[in-house]
Amino acid sequence: MFLAVHASVGAITGNVAPDPISAFTIGFLSHFLVDMIPHGDEYMYEGYKNGARVRRAILYVACDVVATLVLVALLFIEQDFFSTRNVALGIIGGLLPDLLVGIHELRTTRLLREFHRFHMRNHHFLIKHLRKFERDIPMRYGLLLQGVVLTLLVRVVL
Ligand SMILES: [Zn+2]
């Protein structure tokens, strides 16, 4: 799922969380629930892993990082939050799982390998259990779905 989607969900959950620890924890857990929605980036990840589409994957992530930074900057410029600290911790919690996966890709440890397995299991949970398919939805539909979800979330948080 787009980092911008995780950041938006983290901001929303952080804004309603009663304290910083809850904000971070709920943001972190929200990541796994949001990732369960089939979103089509499995093909991008496979292309990165097998070396066939490394540049495309890096460009995809770079665009996502820039969009996320712009979104988070707008959130803090435009919005008067109940607690900016809780919102920031919700965003950090929401983004942390993908950061850990990124670190795993660069230099892994046994713990990161286990975390990566858990993270990917969540990605496939609905695809395998509800859709009864082995594969993610096509990437073009996933991008469309994520664009719609992100637009709705941005309307809620901004
Ligand atoms: Zn993720």
pLDDT average, as an integer?
89
Which molecules are bound in this entry? zinc ion
Task: Profile the largest sheet.
Answer: none
Helices, by number, come to 7
Order of helices and strands: HHHHHHH
Structural class: mainly alpha
The backbone outline, from C-alpha atoms, is: globular
Sheet-strand content, in percent, reads under 5%
Distance between the termini: 20 Å
Percentage of residues in helical conformation: over 70%
Radius of gyration: 16 Å
Uncertain parts:
none
Q: Tell me the count of domains.
A: 1
Total beta strands: 0
Q: Which properties best describe this structure?
A:
0% strand; mainly alpha; binds zinc ion; 158 residues; globular; single chain
Question: Could you explain the architecture of this structure?
Answer:
- The mean pLDDT is 89.
- This protein has 158 residues and is mostly helical.
- It starts with a helix and ends with a helix.
- The chain has helices at residues 3-16, 20-36, 42-49, 54-78, 84-106, 110-129, 139-157.
- It is 80% helix and 0% strand.
- Zinc ion is lined by residues 31, 35, 97-98, 119.
Q: What is the structure about, briefly put?
A:
This protein has 158 residues and is mainly alpha-helical.
How are the SSEs ordered, and which strands pair?
Blueprint: H1 3-16, H2 20-36, H3 42-49, H4 54-78, H5 84-106, H6 110-129, H7 139-157
Helix pairs in contact: 1-2, 1-4, 1-5, 1-7, 2-5, 2-6, 3-4, 5-6
The protein binds zinc ion.
